Amino acid sequence: MSVAGGGSLAPEERAGYAFWGPVLVVGLLLELLGAMSGWIRGAIPWPTLSATIAHLEALHGWVAAVVAAVIAAVAFQALAPARRVRGRCVRPGLPHVRVAPAYYGWALVYASVAVAATASSLTPLDAFEHGEVVYGTLAFSGVAVPSALAYWLGRVVRFPTLFATLRLLERRLHWIALAVAVALTVLLLHLALYPWPNLARETARYAGLTAGEARDRAVSELHRLRPSTLLTYRSAARGSFGGDDAWLVSFETERGVGSSCLVAVTRTSADATAECAR
């Protein structure tokens, strides 16, 4: 292991490790455990990042294009020359660039979990909705807002970007930085081509509908039959109904216990079992 840089850590470098270190460790650990041990999923209140994105892609086909666009934008930002402070692009013409004093990285990690807990207390969330809230909050507060502050207002938060942090780490511990870069590359491929390396991926549409469209039609049919229902969406599986391809959408009670309510959704119809109306 080569150590190209020595001396004490600068505040910028320390802030980068403090923010991105826990984020990467927890994120990569969840991905690894989720891929290796199916039983652990029941013990984690939200799914892996890749599973959350795959769920969104199944509900909305355009999400896959957004994922590819984000990866391309990340690669461009990492390689393109520009006026940068702590790795963030600053708009030309801004006379002064200052530190945003109240924006601490470690607080964002806890904030994302707190937002998910608050949202869950206000309305029941399934596992994927927990994932969307946690990862979405972290991406918004840890990436989108700092980038916007730097570019438009010239206010740079204390912690540098992930790539700037990796460059600082590479100067000190080259092989650790290389290992992290490799792991991130694998993760990006996993996100873009989920469930890569298992590429036997089903198409997003079935029976002329995406899973999200089938879910929405099933929920509408359930509320038509039972306006004051206490059942919530559980899952949508591919199957058949009346000899035609159909999404079989199931529901569960507020306690997370499965019910006998099932709605078969085809291109032209939505048929519910008798239990859905009781």
Written account of the structure:
The protein is an alpha+beta fold. It has two domains: 11-192, no CATH class; 205-277. It has helices at 11-36, 49-59, 62-79, 105-122, 127-153, 162-172, 174-192, 211-225, and strands spanning 84-85, 88-89, 98-99, 155-156, 205-206, 209-210, 232-241, 244-252, 258-265, 270-272. A four-stranded antiparallel beta sheet has the order 7-8-9-10, covered by helices on one side. Strands 1-2 form a two-stranded antiparallel sheet. Helix 4 (105-122) packs across helix 5 (127-153).
* Order of strands in the sheet with most strands: 7-8-9-10
Query: What is the molecular shape?
Result: elongated
Uncertain residue segments: none
Radius of gyration: 23 Å
The count of domains is 2
Mean pLDDT: 78
DSSP E strands, number: 10
Beta-strand level of the residues, as a percent range?
Answer: 15-25%
Q: Profile the largest sheet.
A: 4 strands, antiparallel
| N- to C-terminal distance | 66 Å
Question: What is the fold's blueprint, element by element?
Answer:
Elements: H1 11-36, H2 49-59, H3 62-79, E1 84-85, E2 88-89, E3 98-99, H4 105-122, H5 127-153, E4 155-156, H6 162-172, H7 174-192, E5 205-206, E6 209-210, H8 211-225, E7 232-241, E8 244-252, E9 258-265, E10 270-272
Parallel strand pairs: 3-4
Antiparallel strand pairs: 1-2, 5-6, 7-8, 8-9, 9-10
